[in-house]
Amino acid sequence: MKPARPRTPARPRKRKPAAPAAAASPAVTTAAPPAVTTAAPPAKAAPPADAPPPAETRIGPTFRTFDRVVRAAEARVTQGISPTAVGGAWLDWAVHLARAPGKRMELAARASIQALRYLLWLRHAMEAQPPPLSASANGDTRFAAPAWSAFPLNAVAQAHLLAESWWMEATRDVPGLSHRHAEQVAFMMRQVTDILAPSNIPWLNPAITERTLADGGLNLVRGAENWLDDLERGLSAAPPDGAEHFRPGHEVATTPGRVVFRNDLIELIQYAPATGAVHPEPLLIVPAWIMKYYILDLSPENSLVRWLVAQGFTVFMVSWKNPDARDRERGLDDYRREGVMAALDAISAILPDRRIHACGYCLGGTILSIAAATMARDGDARLASMTLLAAQTDFAEAGELMLFVDESQLSFLEDMMWDQGFLDTHQMSGAFQALRSNDLVWSRLIRRYVLGDPNGMTDLLAWNSDQTRMPARMHGEYLRGLFLENRLSAGRFAVEGRVIALSDIDVPIFAVGTMKDHIAPWRSVYKISLFTDTAVTFVLASGGHNAGIVSPPGKAGRAFRAMTRGKDDRYLAPDSWAEIAPSQDGSWWAEWAAWLARASGPAKAPPPPMGAPRRGLPPLEPAPGTYVLMK
């Protein structure tokens, strides 16, 4: 029995005037949709900053291509990080701190007090184990080993934590320092203090010394072998050690199905039914194009797709092509037209006159939201519901990933992508790893290269190493239009020359955020409830951006909160929502399946055929298809 959910009080709601009805929904065809161009917002926009001056005022030739070549070469060395953006933040902090004698006196007084407290604490630490002066942050496991609680290692750990807190305080509340530069400096300061942590120093880390003594130094030999192996694999673009045991179509991405549609950007997979009767409405899943789709179809026990099919749903999956330099001119609207809309057209050809549940994960949810708002504007009523998994539609609070997305950094990235035609996988993965450097960088280096441990590969880790590229034009439009200028939630995002609005979406929405998400923070994901004018069920799941979504029933330690805000209910701020939303143990998958079932007809329809040969959509090769295998 599903527990009743508390509902927020209803309020009268003023409805906006209805938009003029479209003449008719566009006819479904099996051919690729006609090419359209996403125009800029209406006229009178300022000319672009790099527009050349009028010919009569320009004296001599321009050398801007030379500038781009120089910056592109520099970006290859820095892995896409703009030295100007980084240096500007540090310079702004240093100048304002130098002009704030009061702040410097506060820091000096804090240092003196901390030093005195530390000396007094140290006197007792030599004889007993007094409570720590500075505790590790929640989730920080650097000093979790018992040896760090005994003298002298506890003294080393406390000295580092006190120094770390002092330096972080030095980045806060500096008069005149911009909020953005303060966040950037604080982020970079954390990276520096992470590097200098005693846990990263082999002769201070007790786990390293104990392992070295126990193994007679052989762990260092194994670590050197691991380093050489990783170096060789990196130079040859080979997957990490152990990933060969998780091959798409063999150990992962094994749910039976067929590719039923293909264009130059996607393959559409239709999964074979696993029940004698199915819900009449199909489900389309749109994953992010920066990842291979099979994160949602990992090994059978972790596969969301296999589980959904077993619940009586007809599931279709978009598998994105891995672009290269030839795709440099593909834009964000190409991903909407040739991705989401082409998949919907194909499904409508296979299952005519059926409404479709649509689900988007991460960036797939963002492009799905854009497509849904465009469909609502144009009177296309094919969607039955929309589900967003760790997907943002507002980027004002997009987390630490946004810290260095400014004009300087974006221009630097655009020059790099202008040169190579795409954003490389290594340049993306480095940014994601920096968000959790303790877990994803330094602790991994210690385990693999000093302790000599193997990779400990899992299906999720193997998928994480199977990365994709992003076309230059699309990535630039995405960063500039959504991250930097936040046009979608501000009502300034245009599709085919006309602005779209999230508030036009009138189908029910199921949105999932995850508690430890560093890529799409849950409070940012929650904002879909603020910008839409329909019933929204929001779920806050335990785990992070990937592990919180891959949460099969039966896995221990999983929990979630869920509550529905009705169409006419008052808006609740995210923290207020979290205080009253009931908590439940287990996986949120069952909650979603029940929600989908309520929005669907009963599971009494016979399973549909694979593809639609008479409409030009014959079943092609078996799942997982060919695009997922592209390197």
Task: Please outline what is shown here.
The protein is an alpha/beta fold. The chain contains 20 helices and 14 strands.
Key features of this structure:
single chain, 631 residues, alpha/beta, ten-stranded mixed β-sheet, two-stranded antiparallel ribbon, 10% strand, globular
What does this molecule look like?
This protein is an alpha/beta fold and 631 residues long. It is 39% helix and 10% strand. It has 20 helices and 14 strands. It has helices at 64-78, 83-98, 101-125, 153-170, 179-195, 206-215, 218-235, 304-310, 332-350, 363-378, 407-420, 425-435, 437-450, 459-465, 472-484, 487-490, 522-525, 528-531, 574-580, 589-598, and strands spanning 257-262, 266-271, 283-286, 315-320, 356-361, 383-389, 422-423, 470-471, 494-495, 498-499, 509-514, 536-541, 559-565, 583-585. The strands form three sheets. It has a ten-stranded mixed beta sheet, with helices on both faces. Helix 1 (64-78) packs across helix 11, helix 2 packs across helix 5 (179-195) and helix 7 (218-235) crosses helix 13 (437-450). The longest helix is centred in the first third of the chain and has 25 residues, at 101-125. The chain is globular, with a radius of gyration of 27 Å. Mean pLDDT is 84; it is low at 1-49.
